[in-house]
Amino acid sequence: MPNDFPLRKIIHVDMDAFYASVEQLDHPELRGKPVAVGGSSKRGVVSAASYEARKYGVRSAMSSVVAKRNCPELIFVKARFDRYKEISQHIRKIFYDYTDLVEPLSLDEAYLDVTTNKKGNPSATLIAQEIRGRIFEELKLTASAGISINKFIAKIASDYNKPNGQKTVNPEEVLYFLEALDIRKFYGVGKVTAEKMYKLGIFTGQDLKTKSQEFLEEKFGKSGSFYYNVVRGIHTSEVKPHRIPKSVGAERTFNENLSSEIFMLERLDHIATEIERRLKKSNIAGKTITLKIKYSDFTLQTRSKTLPYFVAEKALILETAKTLLYQEKMENSVRLLGISLANLNTDKKELLKKEEPILVQLQFDF
């Protein structure tokens, strides 16, 4: 185990079936039943599924039609994001009782760096246990946690004993844990990458470790060096309390395909309104506007334009989106439209700033 890189005490907390669990909490009649949060129409998509539904193979991002086919008794409920955000804020307040180094990934998961913490507790394992206990005591919801020396391993570990469990990977266990791990469990290895690795004879962390950095970079590009390092327990990314967004966007999938540009403009108006709200809430603006179009045959097209100035007003965003819409003739009807802003006016100096790593002794209690 190399000892010349930062060694931290990182917790990854992941709520269990968060959206569906909130619905079961607020609606007792749904408890113990298969629940899917999302639309039940033929165009609907499952946003979250309760563990009762998952037993039937229902998963997030699955078509509602397929989900219903897998589980005829499935109960669909509409998403209530205001409620989810309210509970998420309560959970984060609990996190901040232990450390200010909290990096939310979404409403239902976050990294915490408790190397130095407000409780003066040297055990990250006990802190994770206490946090999970408080979440259940105060909100009657369960959470799982992973604890280890870096974000990568903590993320993997949080899924190990789900639901309502936790796993600690101590410093001396890191290499064995990674070597024995199925390659599909590596965070950042999706289905396509896993299939490619299988063809190369890579099925476990041990197999991955036998490949040279040059080989992995040749086969996987920039990701190759990432795979080479993480399987050796090297991942130096810090918990970043204030994540700088790279883009701001919104999109809508329609119940019926749109073939009229008039109807498309009407939808773009709503999307631009939402983007303006998000931009002003974060006090940011952008120069590059991208229009996303998904056709009825599921082909995807993007059209972009970079302006000479930063924009955050709906009128300018919508006008540019209109220009992009009329840029080419539509060859098919449309099922989804989206707008995003990139090249934001966030402080790039913060992104480029490099801090000297803090080296910590390898042996310390978890």
Rounded to the nearest angstrom, the radius of gyration is 23 Å
Regarding quaternary structure, what we see is single chain
Count of discrete structural domains: 4
Tell the overall outline.
globular
Give the biggest sheet: 5 strands, mixed
Share of residues in strands: 15-25%
Overall mean confidence score, pLDDT: 89
Secondary-structure arrangement, i.e. CATH architecture of the largest domain? 2-Layer Sandwich
Describe the structure.
This protein is an alpha+beta fold and 366 residues long. The chain folds into 4 domains: 97 residues, Alpha-Beta Plaits (2-Layer Sandwich), CATH 3.30.70.270; 63 residues, MutS, DNA mismatch repair protein, domain I, CATH 3.40.1170; 57 residues, DNA polymerase, domain 1; 104 residues, DNA polymerase, Y-family, little finger domain (Dna Ligase, domain 1). It is 37% helix and 22% strand. Strands 5-6-1-7-8 form a 5-stranded mixed beta sheet. Strands 9-12-10-11 form a 4-stranded antiparallel beta sheet, covered by helices on one side. Strand 7, helix 6 and strand 8 form a beta-alpha-beta unit. The protein is globular and about 60 Å long.
